[in-house]
Design brief:
CATH topology of the largest domain: Metallo-beta-lactamase, Chain A
Number of strands: 10
Number of domains: 2
Order of helices and strands: EEEEHEEEEEHEHH
Number of helices: 4
Radius of gyration: 20 Å
Strand content: 15-25%
CATH architecture of the largest domain: 4-Layer Sandwich
Largest sheet: 5 strands, mixed
Length: 221
């Protein structure tokens, strides 16, 4: 939820009361409600950039949106013009943020330098080898020091950036869930999900137990 320095780009910020909101270009990192809060039927023509999966989610919920453009993660970087005369532009590269379906990090590059906006993300060491545009092969070393490109400004998700938070790795959490299910084979076990982001776990469970994913939606008002 920030204005990118030196530009008219807003990330995860859809304040409907912002003056002259049509003069901004909007980016959405992922489809969690606290990040697209403020979107409503009045947002018909404002330009919104996001990943292809997030675009599908957006248009399913807000079919009135007319100017949503999906940027792929494979074809990088993308040129984005900031003015109607097409005289000012920057480049943006999308990286998988390892959060929920369609979630991405944005690397904005241009006259203002390199600005990395992580959004919500979950770091894994595999990123150091998989995100080649962010961690070039020529900069890699055994100590993993200084392996990224030069970043002038880092906009970091720091929600759980405190030693008091100790989350298990995904494979460890999966083992705990399997253990609970196996200990309750004579009962019906329901997996309750309140937001996007846990689909991978459902797929692992279905694969482990060689079954299909069956679900029902309950709305609590």
């Amino acid at each position: 939820m920030v204005l990118i320095h030196g530009t008219n780009i807003l990330v995860d910020d859809f304040n409907p009361n912002r003056p002259d909101r049509s003069s901004y270009i909007y980016f959405l990192t992922h489809f969690h409600q606290d990040f697209f809060q403020g979107l409503d039927k009045s947002w018909a023509n404002e330009k919104i950039y996001c990943s292809p999966i997030t675009k599908d989610f957006l248009l399913d919920r807000y079919p009135n949106l007319k100017n949503v453009e999906a940027l792929t993660l494979e074809d990088a970087p993308h040129t984005i013009y900031l003015d109607k005369k097409l005289s000012i532009y920057i480049e943006v590269t999308l990286f998988d943020s390892n959060h929920c379906l369609g979630s991405v990090m944005f690397l904005f590059s241009g006259y203002m330098g390199n600005i990395l906006h992580t959004g919500d993300f979950r770091f894994t060491p595999k990123m150091l080898t998989e995100l080649k545009d962010l961690y070039p092969e020529t900069r890699r070393n055994s100590q993993n020091k200084g392996v990224s490109i030069e970043i002038d400004e880092l906009i970091l998700d720091a929600t759980f950036c405190d030693p008091i938070f100790k989350f298990p790795r995904r494979n460890e959490a999966f083992k705990v869930i399997v253990k609970i299910i196996n200990e309750n084979k004579d009962r019906r076990c329901c997996v309750v999900l309140d937001v996007l982001g846990k689909e991978e776990m459902l797929v692992h469970l279905a694969t482990h137990y060689k079954t299909k994913v069956d679900f029902e939606v309950n709305l609590f008002i």
